[in-house]
Amino acid sequence: MKIFRYFVFVLLMAILLSGCYIKLHEENGLETRFDDDDMVFILKSDADAIELLIDKTIDFSTVLVPDGYLKIVKYINENTLIALARGTKMNQGEEILRIEGLKEKGLIASIKIWNALDIYHESNGTEPELLGDFTGDGQVEGFDFIAFAQSYGNALGSPGYEASHDMSSLENPASKAFSGIWAKIYSQEGVPDGKIDGPDFIVFANNYGFANPYLGTWTFTGAIDYDSSSFGQVNATGNGTATIESLNYNLTGNVTMSFEADYEDESGNPLHSEMTTTINNVSFDFDNLVMTIDATVDDPTGSGSTYDVRLRGALRTDGNAVYAEVPSGDIYLLNPERKIGTWSGSKE
Ligand SMILES: [Ca+2]
Ligand SMILES: [Ca+2]
Fold it and tell me: What average pLDDT does the segment 213-232 reach?
């Protein structure tokens, strides 16, 4: 018993010292039962990733997992490797796997169960990276999973090993290292260990379904109401879209806008204009959860003048989650800077 206590103490110290760790069980984590003609697997402890090696060639179509699970099935010689993970922890007592028509006992050659302690790490200053987006389209989705599943189980030196998929390891796991909209996303690689297995699958499954928070098509609406030295009191409403395609953290793009404006000519006569225009030289900046858009707008009356404008607004937050949405913000004319209206924006 003393030895056991000592072991627990060492483990606790390891947890406290490391702040973030992944534990690997090699046995006793799964209970198997027979249910009619099927073998079912029940978790005996919480888990983040599981790998089973079964001493038989199992037909892929008979391997059933609950909704929301990612499943990798591979054949190694005459054995079948089954790896499972999902975006959240798999819970003790859950039926995680059912193999139809499997009634033989003693076929399980090995079981590995990885358990991650998820502790937020402050980043060391590098940019966040959407780990698991191997195709580079800003989302972790099916094509990334196909690639990851192909290299799963391979080690450095094997032709199937893909270095970009080796994102994490037991000793130095990948981490959720940025706050705000990135807080739920593994965004900083761990130290690769030359194996693509459970720790890497945990990262992939967690990030599966996430998109780079700012990429995609944004829609904007806005209104201005200000006293112009050229036009008198100007009232205008407008809306527009911007597609942010860059994979960088800070982005540039164009905004296409259509708007209506009511204003006065130099003699004080009321005028109304409806127009569509593309605003060039737009830059998007996301800093401290504030979205800032700087743009240059042509004078809508066609005078040839241009105006420097700035939209600035806080992204919507709810607890730790931050949404790619600006509930409301202000519009400024620059040089000198003065507020002329309000806007809102969100990602489709
Ligand atoms: Ca992708
Ligand atoms: Ca690894």
Answer: 81
Query: What is the pTM for the complete model shown?
Result: 0.71
Which region among 166-180, 223-237, 267-281 has the lowest average model confidence (pLDDT)?
267-281
* Packing angle, helices 198-207 and 142-151, rounded to 10: 180
In a domain, 227, yes or no: yes
- Which of 112-116, 153-157, 293-297 has the weakest average pLDDT? 293-297
Q: What's the CA gap between 218 and 133, in Å, rounded?
A: 21
Any idea which ligand is nearest the CA of 210? 1
How far apart CA 11 and CA 99 sit, in angstroms, is: 35
Distance from the alpha carbon of residue 196 to the mean position of ligand 2, in angstroms: 4
> Residue 309 maps to which CATH number?
2.40.128.120
The structure tokens listed for 63 are: 């391997």
| pLDDT attached to residue 257 | 64
CA–centroid distance, residue 106 to ligand 2 (Å): 29
- Residue bearing the bigger pLDDT, 274 or 128: 128
Give 136's pLDDT tier (boundaries 50, 70, 90). confident
Residue 282 Cα to ligand 2 midpoint, Å, equals 40
> Rounded to whole angstroms, how far apart are CA atoms 345 and 338?
20
The CA 132 to ligand 1 mean position distance, Å, reads 7
Enclosing domain of residue 291: 216-347
Same domain flag for 155 and 104: no
29 assigned to some structural domain: yes
Q: What is the distance in A from the centroid of ligand 1 to the CA of 144? A: 5
Ligand positioned closest to the Cα atom of 136: 1
pLDDT at 335: 86
Contacts of 67 (CB under 8 A, 6+ apart): none
The count of structural domains within the chain is: 3
Q: Is the pLDDT of residue 285 over 80?
A: no
